[in-house]
Amino acid sequence: QVQLVESGGGLAQHGGSLRLSCAASGFTFSKSAMGWARQVPGKGLEWVSGIYTREIGTIYADSVKGRFTISRDNAKKILYLQMNSLKPEDTALYFCGKGLRPPYDALGHGTQVTVSS
User: Fold this and answer.
1) pLDDT band at 53; cut points 50, 70, 90
2) Is 9 within 8 Å of 20 (Cβ atoms)?
3) 24-46 burial, b if ≥16 CB within 10 A, otherwise e?
4) What is the model's pLDDT at position 54?
5) Which positions ≥6 away from 4 have C-beta within 8 Å?
6) In angstroms, rounded to a whole number, what is the distance separating the alpha carbons of residues 48 and 84?
7) Sign of CA dihedral 63, 81, 93, 30
8) Edge-to-edge strand order for the sheet containing 78-83?
9) pLDDT given for residue 55 in this prediction
10) pLDDT of residue 56
11) Which of 40, 1, 7, 39 is nearest to 23 (CA)?
């Protein structure tokens, strides 16, 4: 059974940083592209970033390019999202997904990120 468990969310100040983690199990992590998406209440899922099976290939939404960095540790089966220069508009529930972009094969339960102005 595929399981994705996000952690690392919390409260950050405008301009601050947070690092999200996603622990994966139930599938061959090293052979799966992975991604991050976010959602605010009343809106649909917004794609944030994706990473190919090897760290050589990463893609980002324009809204986070240059501020967020996606990475993975295939040995530990963990996906990361380093978020720097955070803005209030980054406030959302962040999800880890199995796949490069939505629709994902599987989605975690999310971790809340709140950025104060």
Assistant:
1) confident
2) yes
3) beebebeebbbbbbbeeeeeebb
4) 73
5) 22, 23, 24, 96, 97, 98, 106, 107, 108
6) 14
7) positive
8) 3-7, 18-25, 78-83, 68-73
9) 63
10) 73
11) 7
